[in-house]
């Protein structure tokens, strides 16, 4: 058990941040899955910038690694460009 007020506050804020990070991470993963399931190039091209933005935000806040975000953005861009 924490012995200091600041430690108690840190525990509370860490829990809040963890829940927020889990929510945004899961939302982004679902968006990536949805994008990969699309067959129309037009729809995928419209959705790609939103997904890329979500990945950038996760990487900026250290929820995912910068290289993972970069790899995902690259593979999704290749996927969209190959659609007809």
Explain what the structure shows.
It is a single chain. This protein has 84 residues and is mostly helical. It has one domain (5-82): Methane Monooxygenase Hydroxylase, Chain G, domain 1 (Up-down Bundle), CATH 1.20.58. 83% of the residues lie in helices and 0% in strands. It is built from 3 helices and no strands. The protein has helices at residues 5-37, 41-60, 66-82. The radius of gyration is 17 Å and the shape is elongated.
Summed up:
This protein is mainly α.
Give short descriptive properties of this protein.
single chain, about 80 residues, mainly alpha, Methane Monooxygenase Hydroxylase, Chain G, domain 1, elongated
Q: Based on CA inertia axes, which overall geometry fits?
A: elongated
Q: Report the portion of residues in β strands.
A: under 5%
Distance between the termini: 58 Å
Second rung of CATH, namely the architecture = Up-down Bundle
Radius of gyration: 17 Å
Give the number of helices.
Answer: 3
The stretches of 5 or more residues where confidence is low (pLDDT under 50) are: none
- The helix-and-strand class reads mainly alpha
Find the count of extended strands (DSSP E, 2+ residues): 0
Q: What is the name of the CATH topology?
A: Methane Monooxygenase Hydroxylase, Chain G, domain 1
CATH superfamily membership: Ribosomal protein S20
What order do the SSEs take from the amino end to the carboxyl end, as H and E?
Answer: HHH
Q: What fraction, in percent, of the residue positions are helical?
A: over 70%
CATH class: Mainly Alpha
Give the number of domains: 1
Overall mean pLDDT stands at 97
The largest pleated sheet is described as: none
